[in-house]
From TrEMBL:
This is (apollo) hypothetical protein. InterPro entries: Endo/exonuclease/phosphatase, RdDP_mobile_element, RT_dom. CDD domains: RT_nLTR_like. Residues 626-874 form the Reverse transcriptase domain. It comes from Parnassius apollo (Apollo butterfly). It comes from the Eukaryota. GO terms for molecular function: catalytic activity. The lineage of its organism: Eukaryota, Metazoa, Ecdysozoa, Arthropoda, Hexapoda. Pfam families: Exo_endo_phos_2, RVT_1.
């Protein structure tokens, strides 16, 4: 039997069987002062608004049934909820001669603040919050999930000798997931509901892999590899009354599928049982015990110290609902299990800590979170130069004649040179620490004292309970201290954040202010990934699956064209050798590289390489020229270190498609690429080998020119009364599948979940390569040079290919488009590239063109009302209204984030806000204004732009919202955007006309 408070004056009693319920009702009949009745199952209700008074109320049901066939079809005596759902879906129903509005009037709409019906917490005007369990105002029933509790847990976790933390009901704020913390890996699995269970882990504790196949929002499972053994650890949360998410079933599946391996599970299961110290058991506790026993698990809880404590109506309430249980193979390795009252005294849940005794001497673990190794921005370059000269003297590198070296000797010299530079770096600059921060910067001695006082009162309360002493005075004192402690913690964190915002200056606008406003996807720790119908099982397999997905193996040569291309690569052209690289050329290329960009596997940033080149320009130039002479690219310089980046906005991060790779190449390797690709581009331009329809990765071209060229053809066709369509073609993983057989022995390295995997690439291009974009253009130029049917025009910007087809009739349009698409698909097969029909977009700019049947590789293409081309949304009528709305919404999202860090009297520096407005917002809004700027003169567009601009102006002058828009823009010195966009529209048009005249 389960008893819960329903209202202040009533109880809801739940029985295991209907017989028990009927027996209790019989016994209570005739009892004075107690009224018992079965729980009524309330049916959902709707309210009909605006019904005429002339409609008879008695005939209302009959009228609704007769005049609304959609509802009459599903009306029955037993299934009223379907009628309720259908009426709400319709929105309006017919009654007599009216169409009246239907709204929900369900009694289940309850406020969780005042516990009244008819409104939600968002619209509640009550001054006090009521406990959801007992309707008391004496305590906060959600105190254990507040931000202060999360602060306490993180402080204790980072400062203490802990490696892993299992958290139930973590603080998530207004979002749905736990925010990431610097230096800590947060394992959580969002499956549609708010995160209720997560695991925190320090990177030092070994190879950890999240288990996506078992995890949900309420259940988080990971696998830790210690030596040759695997340990499965899970954090769990189960709702108090009803297991809404079937979490216990997920737990049972997890325990059965992991077999006889080491397993530890901990969390809030909201169950009672004498085995873990409860006075009695409840149905939830019995269910948990059945799962534990059936899977050979053992409860680790010892003693009778409660894990949950609260105070209601002046009485102390406590229970043991937080459990730890482990498999028999590891139960003896769990030592010093205890309920720790000192970790988070502000929470209603007491923390549990314990040790796992394992021999980690044989553990091999590879962890490299960043390729930034040296703090080169604080380097002492005179010491670097001195140490570099010393080590170069001790070696015999300078004694070699570089021009006579063979490939093996050249590789040996480069390896020696790398070691010398590392030695000079370690002597002249600090190595970056990879540890975690021990404390929050706003934590003070006063907060530490208040925390200790609350902890002491907690211990006094337990001592008084054991001795049977009165608790009222201690409870009241502890309540006051907890409130003081919580308020002080909130004040200190807010004060420190205000100071942080006010210290920002123009010098750190990009390093601090802009980073606060960026909505970057948080880093996600490694988890098992879904490969079709199965999941990866360990770190090695997961890392290999990622590399195989992003850098696929070359497919067999099945066409004659494939063999012809391979044979052409073996025949070297009979031409003169290129001139050697010069020292000035080498130094100029190094100066163009930013030291803030992540280095490659050798950990050398561009300023370190530039300093070495300045000290030994002849040596470096001779090595680069020898590479050119030998036609050899050093192995160390063409090895890429791969970082896996989660794509933003994905709902399932267990899919391989939810990530993208970034290849970090050594600076010296990028230098060699840049030097020789300049010669390739010069040769191609001199011989007019680059197609002018390729606008990407070329000098003096941009996206606006590409869009303008395509629109010029479309508008010309419309002016001549011709039909016109545009097809945006999608090349599946274009850079990953780019096929060139001239490259050899390229390698990629991935560190994932403590395991390092290396793969030799047989096709594809490292995204981060200097020569990759130019070589891609050379591949695609073959398609752009092809002869297409009359009325077809093809252009590209990198791998974004656009086909425009115009014709005088539907038949001609179909024939030309289908023939052109067939030729494009066949060309793709000849170079091992695949065009994806599912992601190909087809848009018609004339109504009659929509009846055309356009097919691509056996798939019928469907027309879409709009298509995004190089960041600009093109609609069927070319009025650009949706594009302007999208960029304004993007700017508004940035403004809403800015509001959290800026107030009328404090916050981000006004000059920083003005800088971000001019350098981020204005370019975002006016991007491609040369294409759409003419619509800025429309009244609706002017209002939308002015409304968005006004918010930034008020923040820039720290004004109040009552200030007029004109005054705010004038004081902030912001030009109205509708005036700014119009000149940008006219300038490209003038440039295009001049180009046509010439």
């Amino acid at each position: 039997m389960l008893i819960t408070h329903r209202l202040v004056f009533s109880l809801c009693v739940e029985f295991d069987t209907e017989t028990q319920s009927n027996d209790t009702l019989t016994r209570l009949e005739g009892k004075t002062g107690i009224k018992a009745e079965p729980v009524r199952k309330l049916r959902p209700m709707v309210i009909l608004k605006g019904i005429s008074k002339d409609v008879p109320a008695d005939d209302l049901t009959k009228i609704i049934r007769q005049q609304n066939e959609e509802i009459n079809e599903i009306i029955s005596d037993d299934v009223d909820p379907k009628v309720y759902s259908k009426m709400l879906t319709l929105g309006r129903i017919g009654i007599d001669y009216q169409r009246v509005h239907v709204a929900s009037f369900s009694p289940f709409l309850q406020c969780h603040r005042c516990l009244q019906f008819g409104h939600t917490k968002l619209r509640c005007t009550a001054d006090q919050s009521f406990c959801l369990h007992c309707a008391s105002t004496e305590h906060d029933c959600n105190l254990d999930r507040c931000k202060n509790t999360q602060h306490e847990i993180l402080l204790s976790f980072m400062a203490g000798d802990y490696d892993i933390a299992l958290i139930s009901e973590p603080y998530i704020g207004s979002g749905e997931q736990v925010k990431s913390t610097f230096g800590i890996d947060t394992y959580q699995f969002f499956t549609g509901n708010k995160i209720k269970a997560c695991i925190l882990a320090k990177p030092r504790c070994g190879s950890i892999l999240g288990l996506s196949q078992y995890s949900t929002s309420n259940f988080c499972a990971i696998k830790i590899t210690v030596g040759n053994r695997n340990i499965y650890i899970a954090s769990i949360y189960v709702e108090p009354n009803i297991d809404e998410s079937n979490t216990l079933d997920k737990l049972d599946v997890f325990l059965k599928n992991t077999g006889d391996s080491h397993k530890i599970v901990g969390g809030d299961l909201n169950g009672w049982h004498p085995i873990w110290g409860s006075v009695k058991s409840n149905p939830r506790g019995n269910e948990v015990i059945d799962i534990i026993h059936s899977n050979d698990m053992y409860v680790c809880n010892v003693g009778n110290i409660p894990t949950f404590e609260t105070v209601t109506h002046g009485r102390d309430r406590s229970s043991i609902i937080d459990l730890t249980f482990a498999s028999g193979s590891i139960i003896d390795n769990i030592l010093e299990w205890r309920v720790n009252l000192n970790i988070s005294p502000i929470s209603q849940h007491n923390a549990i800590d314990y040790c796992i005794d394992f021999d980690t001497s044989n553990t091999t673990y590879t962890y490299q979170n960043s390729t930034f190794l040296y703090k080169s921005n604080k380097a002492c370059w005179p010491i670097f130069k001195d140490k570099l000269h010393t080590h170069m003297t001790l070696t015999n590198i300078l004694e070699h004649d570089i021009s006579t070296l063979n490939v093996d000797d050249l590789e040996h010299i480069i390896n020696e040179l790398t070691n010398v530079i590392h030695s000079a770096c370690r002597a002249s600059m600090h190595v970056k620490s990879r540890g975690t921060k021990p404390k929050a910067p706003w934590w003070t001695e006063e907060l530490e004292t208040l925390k200790r006082e609350v902890v002491d009162l907690h211990h006094q309360l337990h001592a008084a309970k054991r001795q049977g002493m009165p608790l009222e005075h201690i409870l009241e004192t502890r309540k006051q201290k907890k409130e003081l402690y919580a308020n002080k913690m909130r004040e200190e964190s807010t004060r420190h954040f205000r100071e942080f915002c006010e210290l920002q200056t123009k010098e750190n606008v990009w390093s601090l202010t802009n980073r606060l406003l960026k909505n970057a996807t948080p880093r996600r720790p490694p988890v098992t990934l879904n490969r079709g119908s199965t999941y990866t099982t360990d770190s090695q397999e997961t890392a290999k699956a990622l590399l195989d997905h992003f850098y696929p193996d070359d497919s067999p040569d099945t066409l004659t064209r494939h063999h012809e291309l391979r044979s052409e690569m073996t025949d070297l052209p009979q031409s003169h050798d290129d001139p050697p690289f010069t020292q000035e050329e080498v130094l100029e290329c190094l100066k163009q590289m930013s030291p803030k960009k992540a280095p490659g596997f050798d950990n050398f940033t561009s300023d370190i390489c530039q300093q070495f080149a300045t000290d030994y320009p002849r040596l470096l130039t001779d090595i680069l020229n020898r590479c050119l002479t030998l036609q050899h690219f050093p192995d160390q310089w063409k090895t890429a270190y791969v970082k896996i980046i989660p794509k933003p906005g994905k709902s399932d991060y267990s899919a391989l498609e939810s990530f993208r790779p970034i290849g970090l190449l050594p600076v010296f390797g990028k230098l060699l690429e840049k030097l020789f690709i300049k010669r390739v581009v010069y040769h191609a331009q001199r011989n007019n080998r680059l197609n002018k329809c390729q606008f990407g990765f070329r000098e003096q071209t941009n996206t606006c020119e590409a869009i303008h060229t395509a629109l010029k053809i479309i508008k010309l066709a419309k002016s001549e009364k011709h039909l016109s369509i545009a097809i945006s073609l999608d090349i599946k993983a274009a850079f990953d599948n780019a096929w060139w057989s001239a490259f050899r022995d390229r390698k990629v390295i991935l560190d994932h979940a403590g395991r390092r995997v290396t793969k030799t690439m047989s096709k594809g291009c490292i995204q981060g390569s200097t020569c990759g974009p130019v070589l891609w253009n050379i591949i695609l130029d073959e398609l752009l040079d092809a002869r297409l049917p009359a009325g077809c025009y093809i252009q590209a910007f990198a791998d974004d290919v656009l086909l425009v087809v115009t014709a005088s009739s539907v038949g001609e349009l179909e024939s030309a488009a289908n023939l052109a698409l067939h030729h494009i698909v066949e060309w793709g097969r000849s170079v091992k590239l695949t065009f994806g029909p599912t992601k190909t977009k087809l848009i018609a700019f004339t109504p009659k063109a929509k009846v055309a049947s356009i097919n691509m590789d056996g798939h019928r293409l469907s027309f879409v009302p709009e298509v995004k081309l190089l960041g600009v949304i093109l609609d069927e009528k070319l009025n650009f209204g949706k594009h302007v709305k999208q960029v304004i919404n993007k700017a508004v999202r940035i403004f809403n984030t800015l509001c959290m860090y800026s107030r009328p009297t404090w916050g981000a520096h006004p000059e920083n806000i003005s800088t971000i407005y001019h350098q981020v917002i204005v370019p975002t809004i006016t991007y491609a204004a040369g294409i759409w700027g003419h619509v800025a003169q429309k009244r609706c567009i002017r209002r939308a732009l002015g409304s968005m601009q006004r918010g930034f102006a008020i923040k820039a002058i720290r004004g109040f919202r009552t200030k007029s828009s004109s005054a705010a823009l004038a004081l902030a010195q912001f030009m109205p955007l509708d005036l700014k966009g119009c000149p940008r529209y006219k300038m490209p048009i003038c440039a295009a006309r001049d180009d046509l005249k010439s």
